[in-house]
Each structure stands twice: as C-alpha cells, then as structure tokens.
Amino acid sequence: MKFDDVIVGAGSAGCVLANRLSADPARQVCLLEAGPCDWSPLIHIPAGLLGMLPTRHMNWHYYTERQPGLGGRRGYQPRGRTLGGSSSINAMIYIRGHRLDYDDWAALGNNGWSWAEVLPFFRRSEDQQRGADEYHGTGGELAVSDPASPVPASLAFVEAAIACGLRANPDFNGAEQDGAGLYQVTQRNGRRCSAAVAFLRPVRQRPNLTVLTGRQVQQIVWHGSRATGVRVAGPGGTALIEARREVVLAAGAFGSPQLLLLSGIGGREELARHGLELRHELPGVGQGLTDHVDLPLLYRSDDPRLLGTTLRSALRAIPGLFEWYWRGTGMLTTNYAEAGAFLRTRPGLDRPDVQLHFVNGLADSHGRRIHSFPGFSVHVTVLRPASRGSVGLRSADPREPPRIDPAFLTAAADLATLLEGVKFAQRIVATEPLARYRRAELYPSGAADDELIARIRRHADTIYHPTGTCRMGRDELAVVDPELRLRGFDNLSVVDASVMPRLVGGNTNAPVIMIAENAAARLAA
Fold first, then answer.
1. CA distance 377 to 91
2. Mapping DSSP to helix (H, G, I), strand (E, B) and coil, where does residue 21 land?
3. Is 510 exposed, middle or buried (0-12, 13-18, 19+ CB in 10 A)?
4. What would you report as the CA-atom Rg of the chain, rounded to the nearest whole angstrom?
5. Is 465 tagged catalytic?
6. Measured torsion, CA atoms of residues 420, 426, 429, 431, in degrees rounded to the nearest 10
7. Using CA atoms, how far apart are residues 337 and 90, in angstroms rounded to an integer?
8. Closest CA to 58 of 148, 192, 249, 186
C-alpha cells in the first residue's frame, strides 16, 4: 500500500493530522492505530472512564521500572489503545498550561512556539461553549464545555480553596491561571469529545483518508535521509506501507521513542544492549522523560452524591443512564475531577507550581482499589518537576512494552514542592464548607515533614502526563528541530507529547492538539 502521508498513532495528535492533511483531496493519507476502533460505550459515557483507566480495556496498561523515589514501587501508566488514544480514556480536562511555559519553549531556540504564536492554534481547534473571545475560539472541532452536572462537593471545594486565600478563577485558560474553580471539559451534550470524535469521525468518509486499526508498527523503513514507509503487523501478517511524502510518528511519549529505537535510531549504548544495529545516532531519543508526580489525599464521606462501590450508587446509575442518554446531564456526565486549583507554594514564583484536582470519589491507586463507601479525593500535582527519566527498550521485540523510568522524586526540589502542596491541600480539606463532607481519612499520617514524606513515597504516582522523550531543540540531545522534523531526515517528523522541550503547567491533552495543529499547518503547506 502506498500513500502520500503515513501517520503512526491515532491518538490526539494523529487524529488532528489526519483531518488537516486529508483536507487536500489530492493528498492520500493513511492513519495507523495499533488498537481497535473506539466502539466501547465506556469511551462515550464520561463516567465510563472508571471502567478503562484501571483495566486493560482500550488501555496499554503499562508499568514503570521500580522507582527509588516511591519506595521501590512500580508505577502505573495507563495509555489509550484505540482511536483517539488517551483522549478516549482520560478525564477530559481542558487545560493549556501557563503562557510563560510556551515563552520558555521559544527562549530555548524553538522559533514559532511562543505563547503569542501558539494561541491561534489553540483557538483554531476550539468550539468554546461560552463563546469566542481573546483567548477562546468557536466553530472548531473540539468541544470545550462547562461540567454538565457537578456535585455539590465540587462546588464546596472551590469555596474552601477561596477561603484559604486562593482567588476564584472561572477560566484557567484565560488571562490568569492562578486560583480555584471548576474545570472545563472536552464534552459535547454530556458526551466525551475525544480527538477521534472531534477530528476523525466527521471526515472518516473522505475517499483520500484510509484509517487502519489493529496495525502495530514494528519499524520505520528508510534510505539515506528519507523515510520511505513503515512495516506493520496486522490481521493479515506483516506488510509494508509506503509514504511518498511524509512519515509522521504520533505514537506518544512512550511509543514514538520506542519505534525510533526499534528502527536503529537512537543512542549507541541502548541499541547495542538489545543487539540492534545503530543506523542513525541520536542520543536524545528516549531521554528526558518528564511527568507530573501526584499524591492523592483520600477521605471517606457520608454524602451519597459522592461516588463509591455502593448499592445506592448502583441504583442511581440506572435512571442516570436514561438522563445521560436523553438530556446529556446527570451523574454519568462526570469526569470525576470536576474542580481544581493552581497555586504557588512560595513567594517569588512567576507562575503556579502546584495543581490540585478535586475528585468526587475515592481515586485510590488509579481506581484499582475499590471501597464500599463514598468519599472524595484531592490530588496534589507538581507542575514543573526537575526529575528526568527515560524510555527505552525491554528487548528488540516490538510486541514488548517499552521500558519506562520516570525517575519520580529523584530531584529534591520536587519532593519539597509536593510536600508544601500537600500541606495546602490539607488546609483546604479542613476548611468549611468542604470540611462538612469529610469523615475518616484513608492512609492518614502525622503532620511532621518526615511523616508526610513517608506517606508521599508510599502513595504518590503519575497523573498521566508523560512528555519530553523526543524533545525539540537545537542542542545535541534534541531529537527534532523546531519544525518537529527528526534531525538528519528530510521527511520524518514526530508530532506528540514527546516533543515538548519542557512539561507545561497543566494537563497535556489540549497542548498536544495544539502541537498537531501547528505541525499540520507546516506539513500541509
């Protein structure tokens, strides 16, 4: 099979690229996805994420190497394995990050990536429920809306955070990020608006767009400085899919570096370790993994509107299903993390360094530990961690998962920031009106720093924002240039979270869509 453009990975970036590039009817575009179609109702019912995040359903279900910073535990890394990628299993929070994050990208030599330059790409994708303004757009493919039916406890969290000194912020993507408020979500009429729903579904019938699911790319095929295609394994065996113009890797912060390494592109030592021939040396491939480390604070509650594995919750879900189907409202529209806050843990910071997510249920061990009573969680996240990890190979077999080492809390500054964030979150939980929802705490510890640090090491983990493993830049460890083209190649690009030179201060789905919009404008020219 031969196409003009071959896109590897139908996640958030891949779906945007497939839409934009196939808008030219003379351009033959192929989009490859290792997982199945997004057929599962759990994808489209927002509350259904609870059936995917902790399970293997539509999920790569990865684990990290043992983390010394987490007491030797292996972390859990869920990633979407279906059309839409992780946008089909995430909590749908629409956050762009702080404007200074993008100015930092540009200051590192990445022309075209300052806040003023990326804002139009954010606005292009957006269909903002509240209408267009200086920061937001309407008419785009990606629905961005207010939560349809937030629970009272989510509103109480916002009030308690304000009582603790944070300002009310109705728009974290507006003029300022600091403060507390309800998160906006990528939903339309109470249904998940994944990247596949937003960008792929409306154009799926274009005759020049071919979408192939159940095809796992094993290797990039290339000659000299040009990529000529990819070798894939699928239902009919192994096949070569050729590209006349461009090969684009959009397989994510884990998948893209893994595929480059399997193709002989990367660091000399990593390839030799697995008996792979070094064909193009790029020592930065897989290096610089950066992820948001997070600690959940868990509290039991008597409020039946908070979620738990209870008979009452199950009985409420039955009429809730009808309300969701007919009205797009009710308990099944929840993204669980309905409210949150951005704060600064010390004076002198030019932007928030901690994010809070208020979850209207007990998000214990990523939902893998079930409790038979209702409760709520407050997640404390370090926004700009100094710790740097890596992604590598477990073997030369493409079917093996990648080796993931986020190196959580190896930098002392990350632990110090998380500790201060935890103390602030505890103040919020103890403040009216949220305190009225709180009963017994799960996994309590003493208030001394050493006791809180021990608790962090026992329970902290990712909040699902891996980035930086094929970062853009101009230095020797940069993998792609500011146009996202792989260094040393004419027509091989990487377009996903792996190219971020620094992790943004917030959830990463919206930034990945922006990155794809930016790349598509260049590739379509």
1. 14
2. helix
3. buried
4. 22
5. yes
6. -90
7. 10
8. 192
Q: What residues have CB less than 8 Å from 201, skipping those under 6 apart?
A: none
**Domain 148-182+293-382+410-459, CATH 3.30.1950.10 — does that match?**
no
Q: Which of 459, 467, 461 is nearest to 505 (CA)?
A: 467
Q: What is the pLDDT of residue 330?
A: 94
6 conformational bin, left if phi > 0, alpha if psi -120 to 50, beta if neither: beta
Task: State the Cα–Cα distance between residues 152 and 22, nearest whole angstrom.
Answer: 44
Quick check: 394 pLDDT over 70? yes
| From 78-82, 157-161, 222-226, 423-427, the region with the lowest mean pLDDT | 222-226
- How far is residue 438's CA from residue 478's CA, in Å, rounded to a whole number? 47
Among residues 98, 136, 292, 465, the one annotated as catalytic is 465
The CATH architecture of the domain made up of 1-143+191-287+387-408+467-525 is: 3-Layer(bba) Sandwich (3.50)
SS3 496: coil
Distant-in-sequence, close-in-space partners of 134: CB < 8 Å, separation ≥ 6: none
Please give the DSSP secondary-structure letter assigned to residue 402.
P
In this prediction, residues 386-413 reach a mean pLDDT of: 97
pTM reported for the whole predicted model: 0.97
Return the domain boundaries, the chain: 1-143+191-287+387-408+467-525, 148-182+293-382+410-459
Asked if residue 309 has pLDDT above 70, the reply is: no
User: Which residue has 């027509």 as its token pair?
Assistant: 491
- Tokens of residue 452, six digits: 């809180």
Give the pLDDT of residue 186: 98
CA-wise closest residue to 8 among 28, 38, 37, 31: 31
Cα(511)–Cα(94) distance, integer angstroms: 9
Q: Which two tokens stand for residue 244?
A: 């006349």
How buried is residue 350: exposed, middle or buried, by Cβ count under 10 Å (0-12/13-18/19+)? exposed
Beta-bridge partners for 237: 234
- pLDDT at position 525 is 81
User: Which pLDDT score, from 0 to 100, does residue 316 have?
Assistant: 78
Structure tokens at 389: 């990890």
